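User: Hey, my collaborator sent me this sequence without any context and asked if I could get a structure. I don't really work with proteins. Can you help?
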Amino acid sequence: MNTLGKATLFAVSIVAINVQATEKEQLAQAIKQLDAAQLSLQRANAEARTSAKSREYFDYGAITQDINAIKSGINQYINPSRAIPRDPNAFRTLKEDYTKLRNQGEKRGK
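Assistant: No problem. I've predicted the 3D structure and written it out in structure-token form, which is a compact way to encode the shape of the chain:
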């Protein structure tokens, strides 16, 4: 390969490296997108017109907890506070299903 070919290959590889964001930058962007999703969910919750007679409703509290858990995990990875292993029992399982039926998981005072 001649010198011009090597220089071109080198320049292309430098551009490719600069265009591609680092993993931590991508994860930081994911946190921003999760923040935006939470704002949308807050607006949707404020506009929700679910009556007490409706059989189903969207569980905004559960999805907010799940998003916070995901953001916390990303933040711990991006900014590790210590090198010792984390307690696997400290992790929470995500809810994953945000449609609830009335009286499912709710305790009402009687």
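In plain terms: Confidence is low (pLDDT under 50) at residues 106-110. You can pass these tokens on to your collaborator as they are.
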